[in-house]
Specification:
The protein folds into two domains: 8-143 and 280-343, 4-Layer Sandwich (Metallo-beta-lactamase, Chain A); 149-276, 3-Layer(aba) Sandwich (Rossmann fold). The chain is 21% helix and 24% strand. The protein is built from seven helices and 19 strands. It has helices at 56-63, 149-165, 179-186, 198-209, 266-270, 284-294, 306-315, and strands at 8-10, 13-16, 21-23, 31-33, 48-52, 69-72, 77-80, 83-89, 97-103, 106-110, 132-137, 169-173, 194-196, 218-219, 233-236, 252-257, 274-276, 298-304, 320-322. The strands form three sheets. It has a seven-stranded mixed sheet with strand order 7-8-9-10-11-18-19, covered by helices on one side. It has a six-stranded mixed sheet with strand order 1-2-3-4-5-6, covered by helices on one side. β18 (298-304), α7 and β19 (320-322) form a beta-alpha-beta unit. Bound molecules: zinc ion (2 copies). One zinc ion (ZN) is lined by residues 38, 40-41, 113, 327, 330. One zinc ion is lined by residues 38, 40-41, 113, 327, 330.
Length: 344
Amino acid sequence: MKNSGLVKLTRKGLYCERGDFYIDPWLPVRKAVLTHAHADHTYRGNQDYLVPREGELLSRVRLGEEARISTQKYGEVTDIDGVKVSFHPAGHVLGSAQVRVEYKGEIWVISGDYKLMPDATCAPFESVKCHHFITEATFGLPIYRWQPTEFIFEEINQWWRRNQEKEKVSVLFAYSLGKSQRVMNGIDRSIGKIFTHGAVERLTEAYRESGVDLPQTKYVGAIENKKDFAGSLIVAPPSAHGSTWLRKFGVYSTGFASGWMIVRGARRQKAVDRGFVLSDHADWTELQTAIRGSEAETVYVTHGFIPELVRWLNEQGINAVPLKTQYGDDEESETDVLTDQRLE
Ligand SMILES: [Zn+2]
Ligand SMILES: [Zn+2]
């Protein structure tokens, strides 16, 4: 099925002209279909939104009460001017979706961000067959291969216990949407108390309301007595690192949960005591599994190691081309209104 231009890249984002809607646009449009609530995929200022029902509460936190949001469950199909649009789990964070677009037998899948590794805080990735598959390439190099999640959670548990013995507070930096909740769900909650930065707490509450099992947490800002932090785990967004906010914890050890921690030197560069290799993105092997599983005749590569993955796929006889979008790197930075100082 040749590319008829059903979905194309424009100045404002990925556009389906036939249905007159955009997928994850970065400039304001009339109708935005969103894959997930991370800041680089969910921008404010659009007239109407269509989001996966499973991620509705997170989209609300991000877009505000006044935003006009309609929702659709995974697998449900809407007809937009003859174009069939459906969401399918992307396994990235709660409510994350791949968007499937079909018109006259031509099928596109815009996968947004995804991973295949099991994650108890969201629905597992679903392989969707299509003619045209748009994939991310955040970790599109052979050096990126993740270990089983249980192993990483055990590393965090041990670090926390050891800090406790030394009467240190454990401060763990993790992206406020997704990574924080995945860590809190997976670690041993019997070790001690867990406190959250304001940005994390708000999203954690939305996760709980969406039915995800999470330990009890307390918002750091609500604590008067510093002694309450003794032996506890503090979960905070990476942007809190190096801020005066950390002073309230007295003696502490810092950790960072990110896929980038696999690279030697990244931990030193981030100036943290410990790095935990935990990512919400597909590793090298998962990217291949997902791409092959799509059975797409053309693969569009965006977001990350684009030329490297394109070249490798072409060498394997898979037709791949680069696609330059504005999506950022949610493992690394957090350009997020929710990390606003007022929310500390
Ligand atoms: Zn994301
Ligand atoms: Zn992204």
